[in-house]
Amino acid sequence: MLHEMNDLVTVAERAIGESKAQLDSEQSRALAAQVTAEIVAEVSAEQSAKAIEQGLLRR
Amino acid sequence: MSTPQRGGGRSGLRPPPHLAPPVDDPALMPLQVRDRLARMGRVDPGGLARLFSLSSLEGELPARLLDALQAALAHRTVAHARANVPWYRDHPEYARWALPEGALGPAIELMSGLPVLDRAVVAATPARFVAEDVTLGALGHTSGSTGTPLQVRRSVEEAEFTSAYFASLSEPLARGHRRPISLNLPNAYHGTPLRLPAPGLSLSSGVTDDLLLAETARALTARYDLPGYGTHVEYLSGLVNHVLLLTGHLMEQGTDPRSLGLRGVSVAGGAAAPHWRHFLHRAWGCRVTDRFSLTEVLGGASRCPGCDLFHLDPHVYGEVLEPGSDAPVTEGPGRLVLTAFHPFVQMQPMIRYDAGDLVMRSKNGCGPTPAFEFLGKHGRAVTLEHQGRRRWLLFPAELNAVLAELPDVRAVEWASHVRSVRDRTLGGLPYARARLDASCRPPELRVEVELRYGPHFHPERAEEVGSRVAARLRGSAGTALAELEAEGAVRLRVVCVPPGSLPEPALKL
Fold first, then answer.
1. Is B220 left (phi over 0), alpha (psi -120 to 50) or beta?
2. pLDDT string in tens for chain B (509-residue length)
3. CA atoms of B211 and A15, how far apart (whole Å)
4. What's the predicted TM-score (pTM) here?
5. Residue B499 distance to chain A (closest CA, Å)
6. Which of A43, B306, B445, B509 has the fewest CB atoms within 10 Å of its CB?
7. Contacts with B, A 21-40, CB within 8 Å
8. Chain B closest CA to A53's CA: distance in Å?
9. Which residues of A touch B173 (CB under 8 A)?
């Protein structure tokens, strides 16, 4: 599956253009930061359950 | 659907996708991605994240790539549900469906022929919506703010996929830079914690008791010495009322939130009135991302800093339909119908799912996905049947927005047991009630607003409050209130009432 997907990604990158495909650019970092800020709102990391549990135990 | 095999209208014009030659013409790239991705055995999360990242770039080709990705995933989603989920398998519309042999149509062409799934149907027979090809890994549940609480099953497989997908999506953030520290105030009543990776170090805490609140304030103000990571928390996220309470608490304690140097605040889990969004932006001095989301769908929408409307996440498919029919709404109020794409959601697929949310669809969004404003729950909006047409009179979110600006209005002390906070109403919904009395002539839209004081003690101020609320409601976009009042078809009356007069507001709008 990886080979097939890699092939598709290559096709898309080539079509859109090498300069735009450089997703490790500043723009991509900004996009990633935006995504981060957005998805973290829905994240319940494993630690959260532990933190809450510990908070309850220490009360 | 009226045809046995839908979506293959152009099937005779192209060779089967596995025989398709390599594409040299960039304009054909989206078609190749669409047709090959739809038929791929398993989807690699990193590759899909890369494709969605490419589709988020500006330009016509990335926008067409997004359409192609959504079309491919829509077909995969329907094919998976039809093969593995009893409710879909037994439904006649799905039973007639088959993945077209040739080129696929757009997502809208596929979706518009499928039945809209009402939340009550899922709640009545949840076991029939469980996929048989995956293993239970987590159980979440909705809060019941929209009716009966609904259990949401998530599989091990989808948890692994989403974890890898978001890790890949946010990976560039860490290249050559220090990874950020984020602090999350999770929704602790949502069931099994869902593991989604943050690009840096994710801390979790809460604000729902004095100890947690103190720990949260300490985590925010602390400085960290962790090789490869930032020195302080840079992102804060959580339920909007939790973030508001924390912000108020810091300010009450003499801490200027701006001094903490956050780069982003993200709020979800309820309608954030403009007043509160602006308050948070001023308080923290950074971008505030307002998230629209629901438990049943992994993802949702983010309010755009450009047009101030919600834009759906690219991996979620949304439609706005007329209430009472399946006619699409291109501009104006309508019910939001969402589809959670496979493989983001696998165990409990929701296809054309109507959770009861009313939105104002707008044409002037600046992104490729549908732009909308949240208006509140459909069942809490007020309408009038007038000359054979349903006319909108009041949207809950608009009433909430104006009441949030008025400190006179009593709000729920949702954190009444958190003693270390002085003002515990931040983020609490206002006490108000809107009803249409059809026995009056003309029918009367009566809006009761509960003040923090007896209105008879400050009659002029109470009248000012009532006038301001009435003016805002009359000017509310998408309603016919002013027009119908001018015709004498309805009358608006805003009444201010003393504290303790009204029942406690629902959890959400």
1. alpha
2. 333 343 333 333 444 544 455 557 888 999 999 999 999 999 999 999 999 988 988 889 999 999 999 999 999 999 999 999 999 999 999 999 988 888 899 999 999 989 999 988 998 999 999 999 999 988 887 765 556 678 889 999 998 998 888 888 777 766 667 888 889 887 766 677 666 666 678 888 999 999 999 999 999 999 999 988 889 999 898 889 999 999 999 999 999 999 999 988 999 888 899 999 999 999 999 989 898 988 888 888 989 888 999 999 889 999 999 998 899 999 999 999 999 999 999 999 999 999 899 999 998 667 777 799 999 999 899 999 999 999 999 999 999 999 999 999 999 988 888 999 998 888 788 999 999 999 999 999 999 999 999 999 999 999 999 999 999 999 999 999 999 999 999 999 999 999 999 998 876 66
3. 54
4. 0.88
5. 33
6. B306
7. 21, 23-24, 27-29, 31-40
8. 10
9. 29, 32-33, 36
Q: Which of B42, B160, B289 to mutate to test the interface with A (most CBs of A within 10 A)?
A: B289
Nearest-CA distance B379 → chain A (Å): 25
Query: What are the chain B neighbours of A37 within 8 Å (beta carbons)?
Result: 235, 237, 263-266, 287, 289
CA distance B69 to B63: 10
- Tokens describing residue B332: 């104006």
Q: What's the fold here for domain B381-497?
A: GMP Synthetase; Chain A, domain 3 (3.30.300)
Chain A residues with CB-CB distance to B266 below 8 A: 37-38, 40-41
Interface residue B206 vs chain A (CB under 8 A): yes
Q: How far is A19 from chain B (nearest CA, A)?
A: 11
Q: Where are the alpha helices (DSSP H) in B210-300?
A: 210-221, 240-252, 274-284
Q: How far is A57 from chain B (nearest CA, A)?
A: 11
Euclidean distance between CA atoms A20 and B137, whole angstroms: 38
Taking alpha carbons only, the member of B178, B508, B117 closest to residue B338 is B117
B152-378 has which CATH code? 3.40.50.12780
Assign A45 to helix, strand or coil: coil
- Tell which B residues from 301 to 340 touch A, by Cβ distance under 8 Å: 302
- How many A/B residue pairs have CB atoms within 8 Å? 191
The residues with which B297 forms a beta bridge, in sequence order, are B294
Interface of B with A in 380-439 (CB under 8 A): none
**CATH 3.30.300 boundaries in chain B:** 381-497
Dihedral sign from CA coordinates of B352, B358, B363, B368: negative
Which residues are within 8 A (CB) of B177 and not within 5 positions of it... i.e. 6 or more apart? A29
